[in-house]
Every structure is written in structure tokens, then in C-alpha cells.
Amino acid sequence: MTYAVVAALSTACAIWLWTGPDVATIRLSKLTSAREHLQWQSLTKLLTRPNPTRRAETWRRASIELCQSLSAELSAGRTPGEALTKAITSVDFPDQHLLRPVIAAARDGGDVAAALTASAPPQGGEGLRQLAACWDVGITVGAGMTTLVDRVASTLRTAQAHRQDVAAQLAGPRTTARMLAALPALGLLMAGALNMHPLDFLFGSLPGFMCLTTGVALDICGLWWTTRMATKAQS
Fold first, then answer.
1. Are residues 20 and 57 in the same domain?
2. pLDDT of res. 46
3. C-alpha–C-alpha distance, residues 196 and 217, integer Å
4. Are residues 155 and 220 both part of a single domain?
5. Domain limits at 145?
6. 95 and 17 share a domain?
7. d(CA 134, CA 194)
8. 15, 124, 147, 223 - which has most CB atoms within 10 Å?
9. Does one domain contain both 40 and 59?
10. Distance in angstroms (rounded) separating the CA atoms of residues 58 and 121
11. 21 and 83, same domain (yes or no)
């Protein structure tokens, strides 16, 4: 019985070694799977990376909400430090940890204006910087903090409405530019459907390759110039 079991196991091992993958194939499969995993991780990070424009808009909206909440807390009779602390905790900022120095300065009687300026991001932090200037004026001169915060909130709302209006007006030109940039590809498809063999001319001859290079360069320059003008107009 024992010899029969050993013989059966030996036969199974021999069959597996004969028909199974070799060591090189196994290693290659492991390397390929590891490489695909790394590529998938890189693609996931790229897709989940926040858009700077959307992040800036989120900061601007949060700054408006902060001014409105701060004005309400000041109108309720709270001190400026308590009102700012409660207002910050009630607003959902994109990066809440950046405002921890502001909360600490408001609670401990520190330089709140400097903390607001330091916490403001480069893009979308205009509201916090204006609030810092308002805070500095209110504490130094002794002006009405509620009135100053209301003016800042009104200014931010007006600027936000203006940006939305400009973005809506620029949506049409941007779409038109993208459609014009895709027209050469549509022309190639139509020429191919007519059995004119445009790719043979573009890739098979020097004049065709020069035309292809010039056309692609002009197409890219047109897209870049349109995007630049739209971004400059929106900013």
C-alpha cells in the first residue's frame, strides 16, 4: 500500500513537472503582475489627485461661508476669538488641518491675522487674506468687526458671481476650440473612407511627414493659445 501511494505521488509530480510552467515562466508572471499592480496604483493616484481649479473654488466657497458664519457669531455677542473659533469649526474646508494655527491663535490671543495669511493657500486663499486684513484693521483701529466681515463677505460673493459668469461665457469658445482641434482627425477618417490612403502619404513620404508635423504643431499651438487666453480672461 505504501509503495502504491509513493508511486502515485511520484507519477503526479512527474506529470506536473512535465506539463506545468517552468521557473522562468513563473518568475516572468510574477514580475508582470507586480508591474501591472504598480501601474494600477499610479493610475489610481493620478485619477484621485484633486484638480487645482476645483480645489481653489472649494476654498473660495468655504471662505465665504466662514465670513458669513463669523458675522453671525459676532452678531450673537461672542468675542472675536470665540466667534472665529466656532466659525472655523462649523465650515467644511478642503484642508481643515491648515487652519489649526488660526484656531490656536484665536484661543490663546495670538496674531490671528498672521495665522490667517499663513494658512491661506496660493490659489483660492484670497478670502482668508482679505479676512486677515479685516481682522488686523478691526483689532488695531477698533472698528466694528461685524461690519468689516460683512463687507468682506459681500466682496467675496460678488467676485464669486463674476468668476462664474466669466466661466460660463468662456465655455463656448473652449468647446469650439476643442472641436476645431479634432477636425483634422475627422478629415483623415473621411479621406480613409473615400479610399484616398492619407496615412500612406503622411507617413510614407517626406512632404507628407512635413505636413503632418506642421499640422500637429499648429494644432497644439492653437489649443495652447486658446487655453492661455481663456485662463487669463478668467483670472
1. no
2. 42
3. 24
4. no
5. 53-161
6. no
7. 68
8. 124
9. no
10. 11
11. no
Cell digits for 16?
506536473
Do residue 58 and residue 149 come from a single domain?
yes
CB–CB of 91/105 below 8 Å? Answer: no
Which residues are within 8 A (CB) of 94 and not within 5 positions of it... i.e. 6 or more apart? 50, 55, 58, 59, 62
Residues 57 and 36 in one domain: no
Cell of 107: 484661543
How far is 132 from 134, CA to CA, in rounded Å? 5
CA nearest neighbour of 112 among 90, 79, 144: 79
- Cell 507586480 locates to 34
Q: How confident is the model at residue 48 (pLDDT cuts 50, 70, 90)?
A: very low
Q: Copy the grid coordinates of residue 49.
A: 489627485
74: pLDDT strictly greater than 60: yes
Question: Total structural domains in the chain?
Answer: 3
Find out whether 91 and 184 touch, Cβ atoms under 8 Å. Answer: no
Which cell numbers in the block locate residue 213? 508635423
Q: Among candidates 58, 57, 113, which has minimal Cα distance to 91? A: 58
Residues 6+ apart with CB under 8 A from 32: none
Give the integer Cα–Cα distance in Å for 130 and 83: 17
Q: Let me know whether 57 and 33 are in one domain.
A: no
